Amino acid sequence: MRIAVLASGFGSNLQALIDQLHAPPEVPIEIGLVLSDRPKAYALERARKAGIPTAIVRFRDYSDRRAFDAAIAEQIERHGCELIVLAGFMRILGPEFVRRYAGRVLNIHPSLLPAFPGTHGIRDALEYGVKVTGVTVHFVEEEVDAGPVIAQVPVFVDPEDTEETLAEKIHAQEHRIYPQVVLAVAEGRVRVEGRRVFVEPEEIR
Ligand code: GAR
């Protein structure tokens, strides 16, 4: 299955997907496109190094969200991608896009949703003072950070943690579980029943 990875920044999750899924011949996945809304995103550099086609779709080049979303969809279609993996993509995709690709858009978020949605999940959890936070991978639906949860992993907050050390622990978990989830979805091992998601042969955690 050909997948598109959408990223706005550093691209460490993209790198984990490249390292764990893109190369091995036994994995039925090819990253067919890395798309970014930011021309300087390091994620694009990672894609180029791996020989993966890239595209830049800048929000300000379009009159509104619908036109921006349509340009992204056009790239996805052009590259024949069937699954869309958001990896630090910091733009909200509109309802039409989400409906068109229903059940085929995944996102990773650095907290245990529904706690601490938004763009600063790690900092917000630390500032709130929770003792456990973590990582969530979910299907994208119209409401932001609210689709059915596919996998969650807890990360303990230690007394000496700073935003940096907590981020390190969270990213390590992200890089471990996101490729596993993408593979499970691509292999048809993920079933959705209402809000609940079931992964065969066993949950990813
Ligand atoms: C990741 O920690 C991801 O969970 C987060 O952005 C980071 C991207 O890092 N996403 C969100 O906060 C979405 N709301 P990366 O570019 O190194 O993969």
Write a brief caption for the model.
This protein is globular.
* CATH architecture classification of the largest domain: 3-Layer(aba) Sandwich
| Beta strand % | 15-25%
- CATH third-tier fold name of the largest domain: Rossmann fold
Low-confidence stretches: none
Q: How many domain regions? A: 2
- In CATH's first tier, which class of the largest domain applies? Alpha Beta
Element-by-element helix/strand order: EHEHEHEHEHEEHEE
SSE-based structural type:
alpha/beta
Number of strands: 9
Straight-line distance between termini: 23 Å
What are the distinct ligands in this entry? glycinamide ribonucleotide
Strand order of the largest sheet: 3-2-1-4-5-6-7
Alpha plus pi helix count: 6
Helical content, roughly?
25-40%
Average pLDDT, all residues: 97
Instruction: Estimate the global geometry from the Cα principal axes.
Output: globular
- Main β-sheet, in a few words? 7 strands, mixed
Let me know the CATH homologous superfamily of the largest domain: Formyl transferase, N-terminal domain
Radius of gyration over all CA atoms, rounded: 16 Å
